[in-house]
Structure formats: structure tokens, C-alpha cells
Amino acid sequence: MSKTIKPLVAGNWKMNGLRSHLDVYSAIADGVTANLASKVDVMICGPATLTYALAQAGKGRAVLVGGEDCHTAVGGAHTGDVSAEMLADAGATAVIVGHSERRTDHGEADEIVKAKAEAAWRAGLIAIICVGETETERKSGNAVSVVSGQLAGSVPDGATAQNSVIAYEPVWAIGTGLTPTAVDVEEIHGEMRKVLSARFDAEGDSMRLLYGGSVKPANASELMNVANVDGALVGGASLKAADFLGIIAAYA
Ligand SMILES: O=C[C@H](O)COP(=O)(O)O
Fold it and tell me: What is the role of the protein in this entry (predicted)?
């Protein structure tokens, strides 16, 4: 973690959460004291059906609300899709784009991820742009080049430390309980910093780089101490307030 970058711990609820889950959000928000919030930014990215309710519950509280995906267009004939403007209107301040589950389930390639990030900015949202290699790509020694390629293809020109966050999520670590070694995370995050700094100068130096993939309270401190890890993108553990607060505490 860099001493000059305020970390971000973002939860991604994925396709989980009914209105009854607002209690989880409230328990998380209750645990994020003013002191904690001064040291770490906290966000819950929930399903679109909950965005408005989460944002309402978040009024006057320190836990930000984000979406999980957006369409590239402002509106129109795109049945079932949600625009960045709709998320912003519902109270979101950020949106995840390019999550590997979108890349796999919906065939989203770098070009569309880039367009979604631009759509997020157009609506005034922070784009949380996800990259990460598959197990096969890691085993064949291509993790660094795959991630660099995804960064080049998915991060639009004009990215700044304010409008963008990058999340490195090795696909094989998501929801599996497996995590890369600290050395492997350091290698990828170091490469991401090099690529982003070369392309965006000072903005790339200070852009937040999150690690995601089986982050738990038990491994959060180790991951937090890796150079160029500026927070976490948390799936399963963000659905339980105690676990998520345990992770946040490691970044404070
Ligand atoms: O966006 C979050 C990631 O996909 C990580 O999920 P996980 O913490 O359940 O492994």
C-alpha cells in the first residue's frame, strides 16, 4: 500500500441481495466510524435493483454506493440493460466495468469495457475497471502480458486518479479460496503501476490499484502490505458485515 494513496475497499455483491440485505449495508455503515472513514474509503456495489435503496440508506453515512455494470449508451432500445446515467440517478457514485464474470458470461472484450468506462465518466461515475488472467494464462507464464494487454485495451485515454480505479482480479482466485502469493501480486501490481504511470504520468502514479479474489479478514493484512495494492475488491466476504468490516480494518 502506498502511504500517499487513500485506500478503497469495495464490496461487489454480484447477483446477490434482496431488500432484506439492506440490513447488511446498515451494519457495515454502522461499523465505518468517522475515524475509519478518514483512513479508508468504503463502497458497496450492489445489484441494480438495490442501487436506489442502498443510496437512500447511505445518506449521511460513509459507505459509498456503486453499480456492478452499465451499458455504453445513455438510453434506448436495450432491454434489460442499465445505463450509467440511471445508476447515477439512483445515487451511485461508481460502477464496476469489465469484471471477468461479464467478460465471460456476456463476451465483453476490452473494446466494450473501454466504452463502458467512458460511459461511466459521461455520467459522472468513477469507473472501477477490472483486469485479470485465467488459470491457463497464469500457468503458461502469460499473466503479466495478459494484464498489460487488458489495461491497454480497457482503460480509455483520459483516465485520472479521480475518475478511475483499476482492480486486478485473477480469474482463478475469484470465489475459490485461492490467492496468488504476495510476490505474484506485487509483480502484477508493479507492472500495472509502470504501465499506468508511463501512459498517464502523475495520474497513473496515484490511481488506486485494488486486488480482488478471495480476500478475507485472514489475508487482508498481508495483501494490504504488498507494494502498489491500494485496497480490495471483495465478493463473497462483502455479503457478511463482520467479514467485510474485518477486511476494512486491515486497510485502516
Ligand atoms: O469482484 C469481486 C471478485 O470477483 C472477488 O470475489 P470473491 O471475493 O468472492 O473471490
Answer: Involved in the gluconeogenesis. Catalyzes stereospecifically the conversion of dihydroxyacetone phosphate (DHAP) to D-glyceraldehyde-3-phosphate (G3P).
Give which of 50, 42, 57 is closest to 210, Cα–Cα. 42
**Hey, which of 9, 12, 238 would you mutate to test ligand 1's pocket, going by the most ligand atoms within 8 Å of its Cβ?**
12
Residue 169 bears catalytic tag: yes
CA angle 74, 80, 84 (to 5 degrees): 30
Strand partners, 166: 129, 209
* 117-167 pLDDT per residue, tens: 999 999 999 999 999 999 999 999 999 999 999 999 999 999 999 999 999
Do 7 and 231 touch, CB atoms closer than 8 A?
yes
Under 8 Å between Cβ of 127 and 165: yes
Query: Domain 8-31+40-46+85-217+236-250: which CATH class?
Result: alpha beta
Nearest CA to ligand 1 atom 3: 235
Q: DSSP state, 49?
A: G
pLDDT (tens digit per residue) in 185-204:
999 999 999 999 999 999 99
Q: How far is the CA of 178 from the centre of ligand 1 (A)?
A: 11
Cell triple for 168: 486486478
Protein residues with CB under 6 Å of any ligand 1 atom: 12, 99, 169, 174-175, 212-215, 233-237
- Block residue for cell numbers 488459470: 135
Q: Say whether 78 is catalytic.
A: no
